[in-house]
């Protein structure tokens, strides 16, 4: 880890800049919460700390999506970027800057970087011909693809690209990169990811196509406006754009004067660990002026399932934060997922952790301690008398917890930091039981009783500091009950707990409502129905176009068990006539159909057909509909009132239909 030893340390931490084809979801919220917690930790220990997030707004994916929605790319990205900008404060994320790649400051900076690389001879013109995944905005080689030319990440067909381009001489940087990784082993973390990067680079780097000529939504190449820059060349540069030009005071955050850490998901490690340092080295930056670290975290699943778009959106982090408070979500994500590894998001696990760690452990410690202070110390801080072995033991637990948590935060391990923090809360709870202040009070030993309570109040004060990076609001609430002002960290002032230093006696405490009221079984059920509707009837996966697409697609798939005739009759299968069909904004697989089932009004059916059919090709077609399936919500007022039958993979579906002229509404039996 590269830390700065002179004066105040500077810590610059960034999230990826998110594509605006999606709205903020639990995956992007995860990265952004971690980065905010790291920012807060460094602020708390007196570092100059700066956080950057923002949006990635160029490229083919966004140009296409804007067209699909009938908007200009600029209008589309303006609208979507706003959703990100407004989302983060709801999660108590306080980024110091928010960068958009369509801003003039960014364009100027990227063009400058381009020129520097060009001057050093690392750009040359040519023609690119190979595969491209629009979802990844990334070039793919034949051997990376899945059968059927599918992108291994998106499972969607890649596109054949043949166009004039500028190539970046990435191959020239193979050896310098390998040397750099060797000299700076903490550049890529965790270690397993570093090994992946090293083995990828060692297997040979091809020159990289860094401009596109087949569309226009990008930053123009200087003096060659028929080329726009490859979106990743443009995007990666954001981390420097946001610190201004050389000489700008913000540049002090960049190495060698500051520590710059890029936190990214494992999906985009290669871009950050290979392309980005190669661009910088090529532009003349020295090794010491490269980012300090790229930390690739794992991917989240939801209730054990891969996050498809519909599933991702079924967990709305903003709604969760509004229902349960941002700190509950922050704590859960930071504590439950080992940072660096894949993890699972589950509402029930979240509520379990809330009740156990926050309610029963920390919350109880607070309410017990303050209740005892009200009873035995007039609701004020009691005087500290002579301490005994139990107090020494707790002070030692506090010292260990604070040292371990500090080290873990510094090593980008929030889960370990919180685990260590909670060892103090558990130790303090055990201490109350062992020290039994109620017994000493009963025996009339108020000096001892007060000593115990003063010890507990100090443990709580330390906890209020150590939870601040993860739970800033709850830290304020905890401190308010302890009669302490909210923390106001300042650069140069280290607030992290050091030693056991009880407060003067006689300061007012302010016992208030429970900090973490228990979520009982009834409240949990109500919350789950509200927050996780996919767990309550509606299927969680991407909108099925068919009753059982996977099984139907494979003749060898195991057949479901036999059902009796009455059960079959319970399924209301009807002939439907498609009256209209349209795309669903921001849901790239879905089409919305109006289907005549012989009823007074056509039914709305949302189906995963968009990869196989153009909307206009479906109008007038007869389909088979399961007419009595429970309505299913896709959010934003979109409700499907039935399901149609089809077979095949989602990009090559065949619709089930009937021969002859069976009128709409005819029942199949
Ligand atoms: O890749 N689990 O943007 P993006 C955990 N614009 N994290 C997840 C996640 C999941 N299931 N899904 C997404 C881009 N993320 C580029 C970045 S940077 C110069 C350009 C998080 O909108 C994770 O941080 O696709 C991942 O790397 C990022 O969102 C991808 O965001």
Structure description:
- The chain is an alpha/beta fold and 669 residues long.
- The chain has 3 domains: 4-297, Rossmann fold, CATH 3.40.50; 345-494, Isoleucyl-tRNA Synthetase, Domain 1, CATH 1.10.730.10; 565-655, Beta Barrel (OB fold (Dihydrolipoamide Acetyltransferase, E2P)), CATH 2.40.50.
- It has 22 helices and 25 strands.
- α11 crosses α12, α12 packs across α15 (414-435) and α13 runs antiparallel to α17.
- Residues 16-19, 27-28, 30-31, 56, 235-236, 238, 264-265, 267-268, 299-300, 307 line the site of ligand ME8.
Strand content: 15-25%
Give the overall average pLDDT.
91
Q: Extract low-pLDDT stretches.
A: 1-6, 536-558
Bound molecules: ligand ME8
Total number of strands: 25
- How large, in whole angstroms, is the Cα Rg? 29 Å
**CATH class group of the largest domain:** Alpha Beta
Q: In CATH, what is the homologous superfamily of the largest domain?
A: HUPs
Span of the ends, CA to CA: 69 Å
- CATH fold field value of the largest domain: Rossmann fold
Instruction: Specify the structural class.
Output: alpha/beta
């Amino acid at each position: 880890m590269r830390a700065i030893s002179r004066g105040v340390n500077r810590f610059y931490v960034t999230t990826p800049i998110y594509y605006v084809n999606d709205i903020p979801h639990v995956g992007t919220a995860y990265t952004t919460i971690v980065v905010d917690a790291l920012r807060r930790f460094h602020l708390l220990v007196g570092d100059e700390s700066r956080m950057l997030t923002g949006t990635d707004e160029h490229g083919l994916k966004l140009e296409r999506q804007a067209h699909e929605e009938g908007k200009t790319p600029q209008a589309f990205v303006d609208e979507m970027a706003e959703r990100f900008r407004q989302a983060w404060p709801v999660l108590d994320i306080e980024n110091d800057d928010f960068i958009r790649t369509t801003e003039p400051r960014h364009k100027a900076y990227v063009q400058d970087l381009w020129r520097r690389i060009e001057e050093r001879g690392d750009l040359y013109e040519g023609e690119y011909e190979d595969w491209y995944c629009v979802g990844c905005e990334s070039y793919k080689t034949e051997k990376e693809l899945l059968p059927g030319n599918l992108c291994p990440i998106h499972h969607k067909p890649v596109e054949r690209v043949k166009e004039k381009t500028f190539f970046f001489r990435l191959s020239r940087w193979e050896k310098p990169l390998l040397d750099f990784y060797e000299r700076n082993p903490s550049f890529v973390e965790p270690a397993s990811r570093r090994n992946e990067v090293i083995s990828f680079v060692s297997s040979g780097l091809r020159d990289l196509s860094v401009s596109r000529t087949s569309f226009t939504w990008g930053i123009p190449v200087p003096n060659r406006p028929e080329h726009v820059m490859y979106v990743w060349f443009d995007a990666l540069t954001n981390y420097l754009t946001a610190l201004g030009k050389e000489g700008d005071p913000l540049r002090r955050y960049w190495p060698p004067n500051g520590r710059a850490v890029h936190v990214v998901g494992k999906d985009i490690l290669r871009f950050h660990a290979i392309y980005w340092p190669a661009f910088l080295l090529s532009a003349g930056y020295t090794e010491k002026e490269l980012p300090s670290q790229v930390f690739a975290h794992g991917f989240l699943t939801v209730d054990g399932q891969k996050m498809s778009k519909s599933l991702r959106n079924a967990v709305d982090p903003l709604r969760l934060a509004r229902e349960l408070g941002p700190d509950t979500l922050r704590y859960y994500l930071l504590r439950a997922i080992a940072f660096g590894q894949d993890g699972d998001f589950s509402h029930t696990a979240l509520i379990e952790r809330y009740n156990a760690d926050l309610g029963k452990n920390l919350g109880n410690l607070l309410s017990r301690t303050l209740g005892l202070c009200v009873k035995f110390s007039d609701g004020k801080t009691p005087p500290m008398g002579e301490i005994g072995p139990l107090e020494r033991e707790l002070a030692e637990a506090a010292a260990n917890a604070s040292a371990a948590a500090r080290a873990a935060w510094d090593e980008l391990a929030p889960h370990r930091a919180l685990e260590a923090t909670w060892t103090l809360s558990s130790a303090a709870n055990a201490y109350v039981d062992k020290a039994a202040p109620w017994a000493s009070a009963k025996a009339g030993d108020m000096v001892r009783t007060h000593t115990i309570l003063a010890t507990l109040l100090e443990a709580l004060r330390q906890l209020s500091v150590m939870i601040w990076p993860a739970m800033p609001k709850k830290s304020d609430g905890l401190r308010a009950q302890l009669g302490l002002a909210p923390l106001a960290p300042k650069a140069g002032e280290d607030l992290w707990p050091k030693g056991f230093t009880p407060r003067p006696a006689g300061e007012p405490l302010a016992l208030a409502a429970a900090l973490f009221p228990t979520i009982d079984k009834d409240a949990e059920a109500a919350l789950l129905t509200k927050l996780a509707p996919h767990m309550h009837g509606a299927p969680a996966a991407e909108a099925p176009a068919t009753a059982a697409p996977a099984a139907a697609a494979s003749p060898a798939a195991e057949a479901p068990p036999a059902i009796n005739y009455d059960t079959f009759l319970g399924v209301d299968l009807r002939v439907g006539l498609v009256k209209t069909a349209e795309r669903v904004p921001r849901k790239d697989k879905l089409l919305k159909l109006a289907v005549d089932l012989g009823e007074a009004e056509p039914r709305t059916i949302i189906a995963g057909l968009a990869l196989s059919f153009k909307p206009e090709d479906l109008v007038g077609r007869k389909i088979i509909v399961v007419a009595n399936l429970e309505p299913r919500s896709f959010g934003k007022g979109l409700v499907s009132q039935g399901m149609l039958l089809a077979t095949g993979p989602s990009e090559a579906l065949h619709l089930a239909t009937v021969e002859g002229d069976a009128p709409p509404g005819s029942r199949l039996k």
